[in-house]
Design goal:
This protein is of the alpha+beta class. It folds into two domains: about 130 residues, Alpha-Beta Plaits, CATH 3.30.70.1730; about 45 residues. It has six helices and five strands, in the order H-E-H-E-H-E-H-E-E-H-H. The chain has a five-stranded antiparallel sheet, sandwiched between helices. Helix 1 crosses helix 3 and helix 2 packs antiparallel against helix 4.
């Protein structure tokens, strides 16, 4: 590969990393062509971008970014495929669903919500990581709960009071 081509690929990798909020470093070496194609289709359906990269080019792309990605450098050995997503736990769920029979694709590491997760044993943790939007939704639901209770109590009390007044009005003295 020519030097100009390498620099173009490095820039492309860096721009894709900048577009997405998280990425997973995986190993899909042992997958055959049909299984790899099925994995690519599953990624497309889930809105996950799958990119196979050379480790040296990925390292150079990570070096050129503002964030310090040095914790990932130790796992950049062998074949590497990156899974990019804006939903932090979507790649983890896809990997778990795809790994029913074998340990492929293997999770090497992940960069999610500005945190590093190193090793395949982190897969279950990554599945349960909530995205920023999910956390905001949880907070809003907690804030709305007391207000909903007050409104429903006022509405039910109004119906009871209305019924009592109607009964008293219809009753003759």
């Amino acid at each position: 590969m020519k030097k100009e081509d390498k620099s173009t690929v490095i820039e492309q990798i860096a721009s894709v990393i900048g577009e997405y909020g998280c990425f997973y470093v995986t190993d899909i070496t042992a997958l055959n062509a049909a299984t790899t194609s099925a994995l690519r289709r599953s990624c497309f359906k889930e809105g996950i971008k799958l990119m196979v990269v050379k480790n040296t080019l990925l390292t150079k792309a990570l070096d050129g970014l503002d964030t310090d990605y040095t914790p990932l450098y130790d796992v950049l050995k062998g074949n590497t495929a990156l899974m990019f997503s804006n939903v932090s736990n979507a790649p983890a769920k896809l990997i778990k669903a795809f790994r029913k029979d074998k340990d492929i694709p293997a999770l090497k590491a992940a960069y999610v919500e500005e945190s590093f997760y190193i090793g395949s044993d982190q897969l279950e943790t990554l599945i349960h990581v909530k995205s920023k939007n999910e956390l905001i939704g949880d907070v809003i639901a907690l804030l709305q709960s007391p207000a909903n209770n007050v409104v429903s109590a006022l509405q039910s009390g109004g119906n009871i009071l209305h019924g009592v007044l109607k009964t008293l009005g219809e009753r003759e003295n």
